[in-house]
């Protein structure tokens, strides 16, 4: 599906239905806005059991109990580049923008204003999930739980990203629990948490990280 640009074409779930259910084969979507998808379970805009490539698009206002915009199932693959995730919400376990149980590569995107009720305001990585995020911006994502921008129980590699003004009870940028997180060359600024550690929680679980900058 090759649209004319995210500002020119919106595919909407009208707050009532999931927009795309990718159960087999490979789907590529570019140049569209996918908005106001809704599903009571996993994935308000997309549920991906096979393969999805998403480019130059916007996902906004999508809602699900987990993975407000995208649910990537175990065994699925996801590649997202040069897209924006804005004001999506996860009302259950979390992942306002994405919940990841498969293998995902996320490059050059913006995540802003996404929320989760429990953990992972923008992204929630589940056990067995593998996430690589490079050159993204996470701004003003939030959860009352852990990981304002991201929570990870699986494996996460985080390189050259900027995290700013994300909010959580602890780990306003990233929270890990029994997962494997590697952080290189990231900027963490103006994170807001109710309790320490404010940016990364727990602070001892990021031992393989280097060259990160923490400010305010």
Strand proportion, as a percent range, falls in: over 45%
| Mean pLDDT value | 95
For the biggest sheet, the summary is:
9 strands, parallel
Number of helices in the DSSP assignment: 0
Q: Strands of the largest sheet, in order across it?
A: 1-4-8-12-16-20-23-27-30
Q: Any idea what the shape is?
A: globular
Helix proportion of residues, in percent? under 10%
Measure the end-to-end span.
43 Å
Tell me what the structure shows.
The protein is mainly β. The chain has no helices and 30 strands. The termini are far apart. The relative contact order is 0.11. It has strands at residues 10-12, 20-22, 26-30, 33-35, 38-42, 46-48, 51-55, 58-60, 63-66, 70-72, 77-81, 84-86, 89-94, 98-100, 103-107, 110-112, 115-116, 123-125, 130-134, 137-139, 150-152, 155-159, 162-164, 167-168, 174-176, 180-184, 187-189, 192-193, 200-201, 213-215.
In short:
With 216 residues, the chain is mostly beta strands. It has strands at 10-12, 20-22, 26-30, 33-35, 38-42, 46-48, 51-55, 58-60, 63-66, 70-72, 77-81, 84-86, 89-94, 98-100, 103-107, 110-112, 115-116, 123-125, 130-134, 137-139, 150-152, 155-159, 162-164, 167-168, 174-176, 180-184, 187-189, 192-193, 200-201, 213-215.
């Amino acid at each position: 599906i090759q649209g004319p640009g995210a500002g020119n074409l919106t595919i909407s779930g009208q707050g009532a239905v999931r927009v795309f259910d990718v159960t087999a084969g490979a789907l590529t979507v570019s140049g569209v806005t996918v908005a106001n998808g809704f599903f009571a379970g996993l994935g308000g805009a997309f549920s991906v059991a096979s393969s999805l490539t998403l480019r130059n698009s916007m996902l906004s206002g999508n809602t699900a109990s987990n993975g407000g915009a995208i649910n990537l199932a175990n065994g699925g693959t996801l590649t997202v580049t040069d897209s924006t995730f804005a004001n999506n919400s996860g009302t259950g376990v979390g992942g306002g923008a994405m919940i990841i149980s498969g293998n995902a590569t996320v490059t050059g995107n913006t995540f802003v204003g996404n929320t989760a009720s429990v953990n992972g305001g923008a992204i929630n990585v589940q056990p067995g999930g593998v996430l690589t995020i490079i050159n993204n911006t996470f701004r003003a994502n939030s959860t009352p739980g852990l990981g304002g921008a991201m929570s990870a129980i699986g494996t996460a590699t985080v390189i050259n990203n900027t995290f700013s003004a994300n909010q959580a009870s602890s780990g306003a940028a990233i929270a890990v629990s029994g997962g494997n997180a590697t952080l290189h060359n990231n900027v963490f600024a103006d994170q807001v948490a109710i309790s320490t550690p404010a940016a990364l929680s727990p602070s001892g679980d990021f031992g393989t990280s280097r060259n990160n900058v923490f400010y305010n």
